[in-house]
């Protein structure tokens, strides 16, 4: 009798952990989510706006700008349903700018694996030399938007938040990229001058793709 009890206990010790593991694998999902950026604030009190206890975050909506994909030009752009990396450049494009462009080409290479990935680059419409330089790019999934010089800074600051609202234009425009999800929420900011930051950006693109695929 004691022998059967020991055998039963041994089976429990060996089998139960396996069953728990199989349950967790089959009925739960490993999930890593990215934070949201740019909470909306009350214009009078400057307090963060909440709905039902949750913070309300800024969303980039469809916008009207002359945008080219290298094949055609349109005046209305929708980023809904796309994962978008936003960048901005203004001439002269020197060493740091060249480095940032090469990083964008690395990111664009992910488009082959993730067709929903787009790069949106904001340009001063007066700078044709820079347009020509960036024009020599992989065209699939890479959009160029031309912005008048008079509103260039305001667009970066108030629409895409590449420049904080309380900061004057002290940085080079290309020093920061942002990651926007399919719903227009900003999910990350990245220093374009740092290779480690670009690696983080590429990893977080994969996270958004993975989460979207597993939430279908």
Explain the overall architecture.
The protein is α+β, with helices and mostly antiparallel strands. The protein folds into two domains: 1-30; 50-215, Glutaredoxin (3-Layer(aba) Sandwich), CATH 3.40.30.10. Helices cover 37% and strands 22% of the residues. It is built from five helices and nine strands, in the order H-E-E-E-E-E-H-E-H-E-H-E-E-H. It has helices spanning 2-27, 95-108, 128-135, 149-158, 195-215, and strands at 50-51, 54-55, 63-68, 73-77, 83-89, 117-124, 142-147, 176-180, 186-191. The chain has a seven-stranded mixed beta sheet with strand order 4-3-7-6-5-8-9. Strands 1-2 form a two-stranded antiparallel sheet. Strand 3 and strand 4 form a beta hairpin. The longest helix is centred in the first third of the chain and has 26 residues, at 2-27. The N and C termini lie far apart (53 Å). Mean pLDDT is 79; it is low at 13-30.
How would you sum up this structure in a few lines?
It comes from Salmonirosea aquatica. The chain has 216 residues and is of the alpha+beta class. It has helices spanning 2-27, 95-108, 128-135, 149-158, 195-215, and strands spanning 50-51, 54-55, 63-68, 73-77, 83-89, 117-124, 142-147, 176-180, 186-191.
Provide keyphrases for this structure:
2 domains, 37% helix, two-stranded antiparallel ribbon, 5 helices, seven-stranded mixed beta sheet, 216 residues
Class by SSE composition: alpha+beta
For the residues shown, what is the average pLDDT?
79
* Residues in β-strands, percent: 15-25%
Question: Which H/E pattern describes the elements?
Answer: HEEEEEHEHEHEEH
CATH superfamily of the largest domain: Glutaredoxin
């Amino acid at each position: 009798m004691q022998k059967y009890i020991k055998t039963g206990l041994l089976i429990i010790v060996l089998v139960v952990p396996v069953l728990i593991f199989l349950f967790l694998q089959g009925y739960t999902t490993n999930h890593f989510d990215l934070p949201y950026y740019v909470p909306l604030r009350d214009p009078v009190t400057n307090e963060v706006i909440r709905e039902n206890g949750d913070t309300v975050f800024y969303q980039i909506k469809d916008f009207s700008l002359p945008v080219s994909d290298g094949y055609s030009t349109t005046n209305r752009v929708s980023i809904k349903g796309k994962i978008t990396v936003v960048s901005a450049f203004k001439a002269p494009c020197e060493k740091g700018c060249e480095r940032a462009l090469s990083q964008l080409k690395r990111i664009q290479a992910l488009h082959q694996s993730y067709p929903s990935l787009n790069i949106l680059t904001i340009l001063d419409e007066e700078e044709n030399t820079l347009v020509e330089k960036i024009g020599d790019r992989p065209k699939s999934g890479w959009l160029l938007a031309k912005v008048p010089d008079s509103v260039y800074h305001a667009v970066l600051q108030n629409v895409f938040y590449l420049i904080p609202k309380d900061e004057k234009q002290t940085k080079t425009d290309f020093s920061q990229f942002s990651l926007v999800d399919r719903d227009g929420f900003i999910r990350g900011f990245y220093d374009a001058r740092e290779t480690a930051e670009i690696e983080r950006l590429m990893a977080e693109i994969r996270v958004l793709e993975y989460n979207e695929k597993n939430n279908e």
